[in-house]
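Researcher: Predict the fold of Carbamate kinase.
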Amino acid sequence: MEKRVVAALGHHAVGTNFPEQYKAVHASVKVLADLIETGCQLVITHSNAPQVGMIHTALNEYAKNHETYNAPMSLCSSMSQGLVGYDIQNMLHSELMDRGIYRTVSTVITQVIVDPYDEAFYHPVKVIGRILTKEEAQEEENKGNYVVEVEGGYRRIVASPKPIDIVEIDAINALVQAGQIVIAGGGGGIPVLKQPHRLKSASAIVEKDLTAGKLADLTDADILLFLTGVDQVSLHYGSSHPEPVDHLSAAQARACMADGEFDETGMQPKIEASVNFVSQKAGRKAVITSPEKALAALRGEAGTTIQ
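Model: C-alpha coordinates for Carbamate kinase follow.
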Protein backbone atom coordinates (compact mmCIF):
# COMPACT_ATOMS: atom_id res chain seq x y z
CA MET A 1 0.00 0.00 0.00
CA GLU A 2 1.26 3.48 -0.86
CA LYS A 3 2.35 5.67 2.01
CA ARG A 4 0.97 9.19 1.86
CA VAL A 5 3.81 11.60 2.58
CA VAL A 6 3.69 15.36 3.07
CA ALA A 7 7.17 16.59 2.12
CA ALA A 8 8.06 20.06 3.42
CA LEU A 9 10.94 21.67 1.53
CA GLY A 10 12.99 24.15 3.57
CA HIS A 11 15.17 27.07 2.42
CA HIS A 12 18.00 24.64 1.64
CA ALA A 13 15.73 22.79 -0.81
CA VAL A 14 14.32 25.81 -2.69
CA GLY A 15 17.12 28.43 -2.59
CA THR A 16 17.10 32.09 -1.67
CA ASN A 17 17.26 33.88 -5.05
CA PHE A 18 16.37 33.05 -8.66
CA PRO A 19 19.61 31.29 -9.71
CA GLU A 20 19.81 29.46 -6.37
CA GLN A 21 16.13 28.52 -6.59
CA TYR A 22 16.55 26.98 -10.03
CA LYS A 23 19.58 24.96 -8.92
CA ALA A 24 18.10 23.92 -5.57
CA VAL A 25 14.70 22.91 -6.97
CA HIS A 26 16.37 20.99 -9.78
CA ALA A 27 18.17 18.92 -7.14
CA SER A 28 15.11 18.64 -4.89
CA VAL A 29 12.80 17.25 -7.56
CA LYS A 30 15.16 14.33 -8.05
CA VAL A 31 14.65 13.47 -4.39
CA LEU A 32 10.87 13.92 -4.73
CA ALA A 33 10.85 11.72 -7.82
CA ASP A 34 12.79 9.06 -5.90
CA LEU A 35 10.08 9.12 -3.23
CA ILE A 36 7.34 8.76 -5.83
CA GLU A 37 9.23 5.96 -7.56
CA THR A 38 9.45 4.04 -4.29
CA GLY A 39 5.67 4.19 -3.85
CA CYS A 40 5.00 7.39 -1.90
CA GLN A 41 1.81 9.32 -2.60
CA LEU A 42 3.22 12.80 -2.35
CA VAL A 43 1.88 16.15 -1.18
CA ILE A 44 4.47 18.92 -1.28
CA THR A 45 4.79 22.17 0.64
CA HIS A 46 7.69 24.57 0.73
CA SER A 47 9.49 27.54 2.24
CA ASN A 48 9.11 30.99 0.69
CA ALA A 49 10.69 33.50 3.10
CA PRO A 50 13.43 34.83 0.77
CA GLN A 51 11.04 34.89 -2.19
CA VAL A 52 8.21 36.70 -0.40
CA GLY A 53 10.80 39.15 0.92
CA MET A 54 12.04 39.88 -2.61
CA ILE A 55 8.48 40.39 -3.87
CA HIS A 56 7.55 42.62 -0.94
CA THR A 57 10.69 44.72 -1.38
CA ALA A 58 10.33 45.03 -5.16
CA LEU A 59 6.66 46.03 -5.11
CA ASN A 60 7.10 48.52 -2.29
CA GLU A 61 10.12 50.08 -4.01
CA TYR A 62 7.99 50.43 -7.11
CA ALA A 63 5.22 52.02 -5.06
CA LYS A 64 7.68 54.42 -3.48
CA ASN A 65 9.14 55.54 -6.82
CA HIS A 66 5.80 55.77 -8.63
CA GLU A 67 3.73 57.24 -5.80
CA THR A 68 1.26 54.40 -5.70
CA TYR A 69 0.07 51.94 -3.03
CA ASN A 70 2.25 49.50 -1.12
CA ALA A 71 1.60 45.79 -1.72
CA PRO A 72 -0.36 43.93 1.00
CA MET A 73 1.40 40.91 2.50
CA SER A 74 -1.41 38.64 1.30
CA LEU A 75 -0.66 39.46 -2.34
CA CYS A 76 3.06 38.99 -1.82
CA SER A 77 2.41 35.59 -0.23
CA SER A 78 0.17 34.50 -3.10
CA MET A 79 2.77 35.56 -5.66
CA SER A 80 5.50 33.65 -3.84
CA GLN A 81 3.38 30.47 -3.87
CA GLY A 82 3.13 30.73 -7.64
CA LEU A 83 6.79 31.66 -8.01
CA VAL A 84 8.13 28.63 -6.13
CA GLY A 85 5.26 26.29 -7.00
CA TYR A 86 5.78 26.82 -10.72
CA ASP A 87 9.43 25.78 -10.58
CA ILE A 88 8.65 22.69 -8.50
CA GLN A 89 5.74 21.53 -10.66
CA ASN A 90 7.55 22.25 -13.92
CA MET A 91 10.81 20.53 -12.98
CA LEU A 92 9.14 17.62 -11.17
CA HIS A 93 6.92 16.93 -14.18
CA SER A 94 10.01 16.86 -16.42
CA GLU A 95 11.92 14.62 -14.00
CA LEU A 96 9.03 12.15 -13.80
CA MET A 97 8.60 12.09 -17.58
CA ASP A 98 12.34 11.36 -17.94
CA ARG A 99 11.73 8.32 -15.75
CA GLY A 100 8.71 7.19 -17.72
CA ILE A 101 6.25 8.23 -15.01
CA TYR A 102 3.19 10.26 -16.05
CA ARG A 103 1.68 12.07 -13.09
CA THR A 104 -0.01 15.46 -13.07
CA VAL A 105 1.60 18.00 -10.73
CA SER A 106 -0.61 20.89 -9.56
CA THR A 107 0.01 23.97 -7.43
CA VAL A 108 -2.90 25.14 -5.26
CA ILE A 109 -2.77 28.75 -4.06
CA THR A 110 -3.65 28.13 -0.44
CA GLN A 111 -5.36 30.26 2.22
CA VAL A 112 -4.96 29.36 5.88
CA ILE A 113 -7.37 30.44 8.59
CA VAL A 114 -5.75 31.99 11.67
CA ASP A 115 -7.14 33.22 14.98
CA PRO A 116 -7.38 37.04 15.19
CA TYR A 117 -6.62 36.73 18.91
CA ASP A 118 -3.50 34.59 18.41
CA GLU A 119 -0.84 35.86 20.83
CA ALA A 120 1.63 35.90 17.93
CA PHE A 121 0.04 39.15 16.73
CA TYR A 122 1.48 40.77 19.88
CA HIS A 123 4.90 39.16 19.44
CA PRO A 124 5.97 39.55 15.76
CA VAL A 125 9.10 37.59 14.81
CA LYS A 126 9.25 37.41 11.00
CA VAL A 127 11.54 40.04 9.44
CA ILE A 128 10.51 41.11 5.93
CA GLY A 129 11.26 43.67 3.26
CA ARG A 130 14.06 46.10 2.61
CA ILE A 131 16.05 48.19 5.08
CA LEU A 132 14.14 51.33 6.04
CA THR A 133 15.33 54.77 7.08
CA LYS A 134 14.37 56.09 10.51
CA GLU A 135 11.69 58.27 8.93
CA GLU A 136 10.22 55.33 6.97
CA ALA A 137 10.28 53.17 10.07
CA GLN A 138 8.35 55.85 11.94
CA GLU A 139 5.79 55.93 9.13
CA GLU A 140 5.33 52.16 9.46
CA GLU A 141 4.82 52.46 13.21
CA ASN A 142 2.33 55.28 12.69
CA LYS A 143 0.33 52.84 10.52
CA GLY A 144 0.32 50.30 13.36
CA ASN A 145 3.08 48.09 11.97
CA TYR A 146 6.10 46.80 13.87
CA VAL A 147 9.73 47.53 13.01
CA VAL A 148 13.04 46.38 14.42
CA GLU A 149 16.41 48.10 14.29
CA VAL A 150 19.03 46.24 12.22
CA GLU A 151 22.47 47.02 10.86
CA GLY A 152 22.08 49.92 8.46
CA GLY A 153 18.58 50.98 9.52
CA TYR A 154 15.27 49.32 10.32
CA ARG A 155 13.15 46.50 8.92
CA ARG A 156 9.52 45.63 9.29
CA ILE A 157 8.54 42.56 11.33
CA VAL A 158 5.23 40.71 11.15
CA ALA A 159 3.42 38.16 13.27
CA SER A 160 3.57 34.42 12.68
CA PRO A 161 0.21 33.04 13.87
CA LYS A 162 -0.61 29.34 14.03
CA PRO A 163 -2.81 27.76 11.35
CA ILE A 164 -6.30 26.67 12.41
CA ASP A 165 -7.64 25.31 9.12
CA ILE A 166 -6.87 25.19 5.40
CA VAL A 167 -9.53 26.78 3.20
CA GLU A 168 -8.77 24.76 0.06
CA ILE A 169 -8.39 21.40 1.83
CA ASP A 170 -11.34 19.80 -0.02
CA ALA A 171 -9.78 20.65 -3.39
CA ILE A 172 -6.38 19.41 -2.21
CA ASN A 173 -7.87 16.11 -1.00
CA ALA A 174 -9.81 15.67 -4.24
CA LEU A 175 -6.58 16.01 -6.23
CA VAL A 176 -4.75 13.64 -3.91
CA GLN A 177 -7.55 11.06 -4.15
CA ALA A 178 -7.34 11.34 -7.95
CA GLY A 179 -3.68 10.33 -7.78
CA GLN A 180 -2.26 13.74 -8.57
CA ILE A 181 0.81 15.26 -6.97
CA VAL A 182 -0.17 18.45 -5.14
CA ILE A 183 1.90 21.46 -4.09
CA ALA A 184 0.02 23.40 -1.42
CA GLY A 185 0.45 25.64 1.61
CA GLY A 186 3.60 27.24 0.25
CA GLY A 187 5.29 29.50 2.77
CA GLY A 188 2.66 28.61 5.35
CA GLY A 189 -0.21 29.75 3.12
CA ILE A 190 -1.93 33.12 2.96
CA PRO A 191 -3.26 33.98 6.44
CA VAL A 192 -6.93 34.89 6.49
CA LEU A 193 -9.44 35.75 9.21
CA LYS A 194 -12.88 34.15 9.00
CA GLN A 195 -15.59 36.79 9.16
CA PRO A 196 -19.11 35.32 8.62
CA HIS A 197 -19.04 34.40 4.92
CA ARG A 198 -15.91 36.40 4.04
CA LEU A 199 -12.19 35.75 4.40
CA LYS A 200 -10.19 38.85 5.36
CA SER A 201 -6.45 38.74 4.74
CA ALA A 202 -4.13 39.28 7.72
CA SER A 203 -0.82 41.12 7.61
CA ALA A 204 1.23 38.18 8.81
CA ILE A 205 3.25 35.15 7.73
CA VAL A 206 1.93 31.81 8.97
CA GLU A 207 4.63 29.53 10.38
CA LYS A 208 5.28 27.26 7.38
CA ASP A 209 6.24 24.21 9.45
CA LEU A 210 3.01 24.31 11.43
CA THR A 211 1.05 24.60 8.18
CA ALA A 212 2.96 21.56 6.89
CA GLY A 213 1.80 19.66 9.97
CA LYS A 214 -1.78 20.84 9.51
CA LEU A 215 -1.66 19.85 5.84
CA ALA A 216 -0.37 16.39 6.78
CA ASP A 217 -3.13 15.96 9.34
CA LEU A 218 -5.96 17.14 7.06
CA THR A 219 -4.79 14.97 4.15
CA ASP A 220 -4.53 12.01 6.55
CA ALA A 221 -0.87 11.46 5.68
CA ASP A 222 1.14 8.58 7.09
CA ILE A 223 4.39 10.52 7.23
CA LEU A 224 5.34 14.19 7.67
CA LEU A 225 8.78 14.66 6.14
CA PHE A 226 10.76 17.84 6.78
CA LEU A 227 13.64 18.28 4.31
CA THR A 228 15.87 20.89 5.88
CA GLY A 229 19.50 21.99 6.10
CA VAL A 230 20.68 19.40 8.66
CA ASP A 231 20.83 15.60 8.52
CA GLN A 232 19.10 15.20 11.87
CA VAL A 233 17.96 17.00 15.01
CA SER A 234 20.57 17.64 17.69
CA LEU A 235 20.07 18.49 21.33
CA HIS A 236 22.33 21.25 22.72
CA TYR A 237 22.61 22.55 19.14
CA GLY A 238 25.20 25.30 18.78
CA SER A 239 27.07 24.24 21.91
CA SER A 240 30.44 22.49 22.11
CA HIS A 241 28.69 19.15 22.71
CA PRO A 242 25.71 18.72 20.34
CA GLU A 243 23.90 15.42 20.74
CA PRO A 244 22.37 14.00 17.51
CA VAL A 245 19.05 12.25 18.07
CA ASP A 246 17.77 9.30 16.03
CA HIS A 247 14.34 8.88 17.65
CA LEU A 248 12.06 10.87 19.92
CA SER A 249 8.65 10.00 21.28
CA ALA A 250 6.04 12.74 21.27
CA ALA A 251 6.41 13.01 25.06
CA GLN A 252 10.20 13.33 24.82
CA ALA A 253 9.88 15.98 22.12
CA ARG A 254 7.43 17.98 24.25
CA ALA A 255 9.84 17.83 27.18
CA CYS A 256 12.69 19.08 25.00
CA MET A 257 10.58 22.01 23.82
CA ALA A 258 9.63 22.83 27.41
CA ASP A 259 13.33 22.86 28.29
CA GLY A 260 14.03 25.39 25.53
CA GLU A 261 16.20 23.00 23.51
CA PHE A 262 15.19 24.40 20.13
CA ASP A 263 15.41 27.79 18.46
CA GLU A 264 12.05 29.59 18.35
CA THR A 265 12.27 30.36 14.62
CA GLY A 266 14.43 27.37 13.61
CA MET A 267 13.93 23.79 14.70
CA GLN A 268 11.16 24.29 17.28
CA PRO A 269 8.29 24.79 14.77
CA LYS A 270 9.28 21.53 13.05
CA ILE A 271 9.28 19.68 16.37
CA GLU A 272 5.96 21.25 17.40
CA ALA A 273 4.36 20.38 14.04
CA SER A 274 5.69 16.83 14.28
CA VAL A 275 4.30 16.32 17.78
CA ASN A 276 0.91 17.75 16.78
CA PHE A 277 0.76 15.50 13.73
CA VAL A 278 1.74 12.19 15.33
CA SER A 279 -0.47 12.83 18.37
CA GLN A 280 -3.65 13.04 16.27
CA LYS A 281 -3.66 9.42 15.09
CA ALA A 282 -1.84 6.19 15.90
CA GLY A 283 0.68 4.86 13.38
CA ARG A 284 1.86 8.21 12.11
CA LYS A 285 5.47 9.39 12.14
CA ALA A 286 7.38 12.56 11.40
CA VAL A 287 10.89 12.60 9.99
CA ILE A 288 13.37 15.50 9.99
CA THR A 289 16.41 15.25 7.74
CA SER A 290 18.21 16.73 4.74
CA PRO A 291 17.11 16.12 1.13
CA GLU A 292 20.22 14.03 0.59
CA LYS A 293 19.19 11.64 3.38
CA ALA A 294 15.46 11.50 2.59
CA LEU A 295 15.19 7.91 1.37
CA ALA A 296 17.47 6.56 4.09
CA ALA A 297 15.52 8.52 6.71
CA LEU A 298 12.21 7.00 5.58
CA ARG A 299 13.82 3.57 6.04
CA GLY A 300 14.85 4.57 9.57
CA GLU A 301 18.54 4.67 8.67
CA ALA A 302 19.10 8.43 8.96
CA GLY A 303 17.50 11.62 10.21
CA THR A 304 15.36 12.00 13.32
CA THR A 305 12.04 10.17 13.63
CA ILE A 306 9.29 11.36 15.97
CA GLN A 307 6.40 8.96 16.69
